[in-house]
Design goal:
heterodimer, A: alpha/beta, Rossmann fold, 2 domains, two-stranded antiparallel ribbon, 11 strands, B: 276 residues, alpha/beta, Alpha-Beta Plaits, 10 helices
Chain lengths: 287, 276
């Protein structure tokens, strides 16, 4: 079983639209939406949930007001400024580390479990999907990403699927790291803007750091052809293969508005053709 | 006044709005809190006059003193320390730097050591003071760098914070204690979906907010319908125009080429001041 992660560094370059097309093209794939704090893939793939799990992320500190002697030690020792001036726990800032429970002289603080989100395993038209939703303002998206990936893996084994396609989140921090560890390859979707190029370089460096084979796709290449050429020559120097160069086309947004992947909505468009050829290349490289 | 600019979905135009608004309102401090992928400096080309390292604290276990009792490992909620009968293993990438292991160790065998996880940079362009953070590639924790950037806030100034995408810890850390949060969205199903999640978080932490619709004209009308139903103010619309996209791609703030926009961003800032 192979695993491919779609990343970008910069947000909004088209990760999710491309991942959804790959799901259609791969036929029997398991797709994992690892952008757990702003997941969008379900709007194109319409999963029917077959299994739901509660995600218990970090715990949260609770102060027993009756026991508390207002000494303020918990506030002083908290590394996350999670105890307010009137000595209450700010549940959003609390990391659940438990330092307050050990420094409290009267044992007035304890850690309790909290539900930080929900994970799902679903059926989609073209296979299966593992996804999740982090509750608003909760932390620990990295751990939830790991849970989604485990779900994707067990589903792929059960359903004899040979590929897991992972939609990552923007950035290069903890949830992104959790979505690339141990994968067979990653596709970085970029755009020909200065930000796109800057963020592409950092994403490639991250993949290199974790020894993941990387490929590049330039989306909306015709917004700035000079920058597209810069990306091409950078990738050439870097030894990174550019597997797709996709034109800007309003049909992508149109298909999104219609709740469809662009491959389903407009199979004959240039965008769809290019995504299909990109998928064929990637699939060959992966196997 | 501290205004944070956030979005939920990535790539909706946070950087575009932050930079152009900052350039339109005179003396301002702009803090780029998207420390994983900071971009504000690409549009501003500031003169960088100072770079400071950012550290987090990671335990160091003195093997001479350690009796492998396992108290630290039992305490650690993040599985960052594993203790067997003859050794203690540390997984620094799991550590959140709470310092609890050093407190609970009965042998005082644990000290906390500084580990560099990134930098913050200071730059300026005319009236604009820019501070931005940069997480070292491969390091997972963005929040300590966001905190280091936010420490530079000068309360008496006009402050604008450019938030990272998403709705979890880095976003929350950025928008926390700002006077107003400007949510930049695009009129598409993805834009609306992630806008709703961001609004839920902002309501939970109690920060007033308003919406900027970027790339107006693409997609559908659902963002507008939602905002009307929920009584949410749309404070500015930026139309989808090839010219704006092209200028952005070259790293040019569009308000400096399309002068009418300077006035619009100034008016936006004034409107927010009236609302807070």
């Amino acid at each position: 079983m192979k695993q491919l992660t779609i990343l970008s560094g910069k947000g909004g370059t088209g990760k999710t639209s491309i991942t959804a097309c790959f799901a259609v093209l791969a036929k029997n794939a398991v797709v994992a939406d690892c952008d757990v704090d702003a997941p969008d893939l379900h709007m194109l793939l319409h999963p029917e949930v077959i299994e739901t799990q509660q995600f218990k992320g970090a715990k949260v500190a609770v102060i027993n007001e009756e026991k508390c002697v207002k000494c303020g030690l918990c506030k002083e020792k908290c590394a996350f400024d999670a105890i307010t001036n009137d000595l209450k726990v700010d549940a959003i800032a609390c990391e659940g580390c438990g330092v307050c429970t050990v420094v409290c002289p009267v044992n007035a603080v304890e850690l309790v479990e909290r539900i930080s989100g929900t994970a799902y395993i679903s059926k989609i038209k073209y296979g299966y999907m593992a996804h999740a939703l982090l509750n608003p303002g909760e932390s620990n998206s990295g751990r939830l990403v790991t849970l989604v990936r485990q779900n994707a893996k067990t589903t792929a084994q059960k359903e004899k699927s040979d590929i897991i396609i992972i939609d990552g989140s923007p950035g290069i921090g903890c949830p992104v790291i959790a979505s690339i560890t141990g994968v067979d390859a990653a596709l970085v979707v970029t755009e020909p803007t200065l930000s796109g190029i800057h963020d592409l370089k950092r994403a490639l460096k991250l993949l290199d750091h974790f020894k993941v084979v990387s490929f590049v796709c330039i989306n909306m290449y015709d917004v700035n052809v000079d920058n597209t050429n810069k990306i091409l020559s950078f990738c050439k120097e870097n030894g990174t293969e550019v597997v797709g160069i996709i034109p800007f086309d309003p049909v992508v947004t149109e298909s999104m508005v219609n709740g469809k992947t662009v491959i389903e909505y407009s199979p004959e468009s240039g965008v769809s053709k290019e995504i299909e050829s990109m998928w064929n290349k990637l699939y060959k490289r992966l196997l | 006044m501290i205004i944070s600019v956030a979005s939920g979905k990535g790539g909706t135009g946070k950087t575009l709005v932050s930079v152009n608004m900052s350039l339109s309102i005179g003396k301002v401090q702009l803090l780029d809190c998207d420390v994983e992928e900071p971009n504000d400096h690409l549009l501003l080309n500031p003169r960088i006059y100072k770079t400071e390292p950012v550290y987090n604290l990671i335990p160091r276990i003195d093997e001479e003193l350690c009796t492998h009792c396992g108290t630290c490992s039992k305490f650690c909620q993040f599985n960052a320390i594993f203790v067997s009968s003859d050794q203690a293993l540390l997984f620094p990438e799991m550590c959140v730097s709470c310092g609890g292991c050093a407190i609970v160790c009965p042998e005082k065998a644990i000290t906390l050591e500084k580990h560099k996880i990134g930098v913050i940079k200071f730059g300026s362009v005319e009236n604009l003071a820019l501070v931005y953070g940069e997480l070292e590639v491969g390091k997972p924790m963005a929040v300590p760098i966001i905190k280091a950037v936010k420490k530079q806030i000068e309360r008496s100034e006009n402050v604008i914070l450019d938030s990272p995408p998403g709705t979890s810890c880095p976003f929350v850390e950025t928008v926390r204690d700002s006077d107003f949060c400007l949510l930049v969205t695009e009129p598409t199903p993805f834009g609306l979906h992630d806008l709703k999640i961001s609004i839920e978080v902002l309501r939970r932490i109690g920060i007033p907010f308003g919406v900027v619709v970027n790339r107006a004209g693409v997609g559908d009308k659902k963002v507008y319908e939602y905002c009307e139903q929920e009584n949410i103010r749309i404070l500015l619309e930026i139309p989808y125009q090839r010219r704006i996209a092209e200028l952005y791609s070259k790293g040019i703030p569009f308000s400096s080429e399309m002068m009418e926009w300077e006035e619009k961003f100034r008016a936006l800032h004034k409107k927010i001041a009236e609302l807070t």
